[in-house]
Amino acid sequence: MRAAGFDIASCQIPAEPDAAEARLRECMAAGAFRVAMIGAGVRMAPEHTLLFERLVNVVNELAPGVAFCFNTAPEDAVDALRRWL
Question: I need a labelling partner for 46 at 20 to 30 A (CA). Which of 39, 56, 66, 70 fits?
Fold first, then answer.
């Protein structure tokens, strides 16, 4: 994504919702964000529905008006970002 010209911040989170929220808050404290992408590993796994919901709400709280984009595989992540930037 950087090679495509995007200034990104990657935030790897644990699967446990409380720890994931704490890590996300830590990552987002580093700056302002215009777009957020939550990977399919969280979004598409039914067992992560509560985690996904929580992450969306935390991002919305910390960056009101942020656009969300979603990829279907790592290979189309750049295309997903381009749709919203």
Answer: 66
Cα–Cα dist 52/54, whole Å: 5
Taking CA atoms, 13 is separated from 17, 19, 70, in Å, by 9, 8, 17
What is the spatial distance between Cα 54 and Cα 31, in angstroms, rounded to a whole number?
20
Q: Which helix (H) or strand (E) holds 11?
A: none
- The Cα 77–Cα 74 span in angstroms is 5
